[in-house]
Specification:
Layout lengths: L2 E4 L2 H6 L4 E4 L7 E4 L3 H6 L6 H6 L1 E2 L21 E2 L10 E8 L2 E9 L5 E4 L1 H4 E2 L2 E2 L1 E7 L7 E11 L2 H4 L6 H4 L4 E5 L9 E2 L7 E6 L11 E11 L2 E5 L11 E4 L6 E5 L2 E3 L2 E5 L3 H11 L4
Parallel strand pairs: 4-7, 14-19
Antiparallel strand pairs: 1-2, 3-12, 5-16, 6-7, 6-11, 7-8, 8-13, 9-10, 11-12, 12-13, 15-16, 15-18, 16-17, 17-21, 18-19, 20-21
Length: 289
């Protein structure tokens, strides 16, 4: 079932006091809501520099990698990504409030010029839907281009597993799609449904590197497909990198084939994108109608 929120102006500041209402034109396969109704009603800028600096890095399901000697795969070091060039320019920093706490994570434009891919565990967890959502494309120690979010959506199956321990089975549902009020002017990742890739690059804003202030890229390889989830190694992008894309291609078009969900021991798990994923992007791009 889909839903949207109505807030009081005080709810815009606290990120709470939400009442769920039936949504228009609902698709029972997806859960969609309007996360920023309160901000629009209050006409305030919630994400001040101070709030962005204080936002907690999303950590659920991502743990620190082992020492190099203990790793199952060679630990290829991540490197800083140049957010001024494609495809890294498609990505950026996501800020949001969930359960009264301000968070930050990773996201990027995918599939369409007005749709952003994020982690479902950022957008919905503990029975709380994210509010006060904003996206800074090409964030690099600050700055970037800000995009306001009109709609956020996850798979309808996600709430049933949202609070389960991290696992490949849970990661299969762990993605969200956001609709931006304005379009990306620099392009986006193509959405990939090819499960046969090997070499892949992961991107995100890990807290362990530059305190999450800059995007990093991690060369990796798909080592297994477990049900509807991929396993890749190595990975040193941990907390704060949630929602970052796995992409293939050394030249345009670059294709997002998964996103960072959970992991440990130098491994990372992400969902397999399918026809249902493509339908979710189209649904959100159309305003959840």
């Amino acid at each position: 079932m889909s839903c949207r929120f109505r807030f009081s102006s005080m709810g815009a500041v606290a990120g709470v006091l939400a009442i769920a209402l039936p949504a228009h034109g609902a698709d029972d396969r997806f859960l969609c809501w309007e996360p920023n109704t309160a901000l629009m009603a209050a006409d305030i800028e919630y994400w001040t520099p101070e709030r962005r600096a204080a936002a907690v890095n999303e950590v659920f399901g991502l743990v620190n990698p082992p020492d190099r000697a203990a790793a199952d795969a060679p630990m290829v070091a991540p490197a800083r990504a140049d957010v001024a060039v494609a495809p890294f320019s498609y990505g950026g920093k996501l800020f949001y409030t969930r359960g009264g706490q301000d968070f930050q994570a990773s996201a990027q434009f995918v599939a369409m010029d007005n749709t952003v891919l994020a982690a479902a565990h950022s957008m919905y967890k503990g029975g709380n839907q994210a509010t006060n959502i904003t996206f800074y494309r090409a964030y690099d120690g600050g700055g970037g281009t800000q995009f306001e979010i009109d709609n956020a959506a996850v798979l309808a199956a996600w709430p049933d597993v949202a609070d389960d321990p991290p696992s490949p089975q849970r990661s299969a549902f762990d993605y969200a799609v956001l609709k931006t009020r304005t379009d990306s002017a620099v392009g986006k990742f193509a959405l990939g449904k090819d499960a046969a890739f090997t070499d892949v690059t992961l991107i995100g804003y890990p807290a362990a590197l530059d305190n999450g202030a800059r995007m990093y890229k991690q060369p990796s390889q798909r080592v297994a497909t477990i049900g509807d989830a991929f396993q890749a190694a190595p990975n040193q992008l941990t907390q704060g990198a949630s929602g970052g894309a796995w992409f293939t291609g050394d030249a345009a078009p670059f294709t997002a084939v998964s996103s960072i969900s959970s992991g440990g021991g130098g491994n990372v798990y992400g969902p397999v994108f399918k026809d249902l994923t493509e339908d979710l992007f189209a649904y959100v791009a159309g305003g959840c109608r």
